[in-house]
Write a structure and sequence with these properties.
Elements: H1 13-44, H2 47-74, H3 77-98, H4 101-106, H5 109-141, H6 147-175, H7 177-195, H8 213-226, H9 228-244, H10 250-257, H11 261-283, H12 292-312, H13 316-344, H14 350-379, H15 381-402, H16 404-407, H17 411-421
Helix pairs in contact: 1-2, 1-5, 1-6, 1-7, 2-5, 2-8, 2-14, 3-5, 3-7, 5-14, 6-7, 6-11, 6-13, 9-12, 9-13, 9-14, 9-15, 10-11, 11-13, 12-13, 12-15, 14-15
InterPro entries: MFS_trans_sf, TM_effector
Transmembrane segments: 15-36, 48-68, 80-99, 111-141, 161-178, 184-200, 229-253, 265-288, 300-325, 374-401
Organism: Hwangdonia seohaensis
Length: 422
Amino acid sequence: MAKNDPYAALRIKEFNIFLLVRFALVFGWSMQFVVIEWQVYSLTKDPLSLGIIGLCEFLPAFLLAPFAGHIVDKKEKRNLFTLCIALFSLISFGLFWLTSDQIEATWETNAILYGIYALVFFGGVLRAFFGPTIFSLIALLVPKKIYPNAATWSSSTWKGANVFGALVGGFLIAWIGVHYTLGIIFLLVMLALLLVFKITKKPVLNKGTNESVKESLRAGLRFVFNDKVILGALTLDMIAVLFGGAVAIFAVFAKDILDAGPKGFGLLNAALSSGSIITMLATTYIPITKNTGKKLLFSVFGFGACMIVFGASKLLWLSILALFFSGVFDGISMVVRQTILQLKTPDAMRGRVGAVNSMFVGSSNELGALESGIAARIFGAPLAVVLGGTVTLIVVGVIGLKNKPLRELDLQKDIDAHEDED
């Protein structure tokens, strides 16, 4: 296997299957997010309702994440992944049913709305387990020396699915409506469920079988908070998503500010992710492991600056361009963060560290949706996004000055050390 082989991870059959499963799931989940946001805003005309969706998913994902990490470290990963997908299929079918003509004709609007919120809450429970399970499973599919390559392809697949899921979701709403779009999502989840059985069961690497739940959770949190590089990287991404992101209120921009309709809504969602996927695919050929810390800080700063431009824009083409370049910067930070976590996390703690990552980053998407909804209602959507981007720039400056280990991080040294071990 060549040292700089950009396809190293793709030469492993089970990793390819994993990528197919992940693409189908994220494609479906991304479409589902777009459809739910559009449907709820259509029912309520209130940006705060979009924030409530974020809160419903954030609370269980955040509160259960440490416990989920403990469970993931103790359990066989393939079967746990399969169970998560099966339960996700129930959510997809439930949303499909709630948007049927029969339900809309016989149920009150509030009843449908509360039903959607309940299913989103259940999805938050699953999100607590999905993140650490996927993070742990990747490390069992590829050798350690190609973790960076595997992390890049996995992140690229995730972003690519977001690109097409958001884009297709927006167009399908216009072409076939919300109900049938959700039916397609259900079929995608069932496809993922069939494919996952082609991955064999994996060994459980956590030998601390006598640890109590409390001891296990404490060990995972202690590891993350004692490592300034990991903590700094997670904090940067969390702040960028929490304050700098505006995905949850794209429907407000598409309908009320840019007058772009559902197709424009899909384009806004896709623009952000398309920049990321292009960047991440480029990093398979042009590694970004040299001077990693400085590149991470620069990328998050660039993301915040682009979101300020998006918030101030009144033109659809400028908004799409700003989101595209924010995606470029986001792609760099995502690859760097995933590589840091994969290389610096012990095998026995991957579930718990993945859970903490979900608390910092995954859950901040939902909490960020709540923040965006509240801020949009108070300040208006454009000013809310501009203020969030400004906060991101300030935090990057503070962390860059205060966190020397992160600022001077060079991942290439760690990668070379693992190659020497092999």
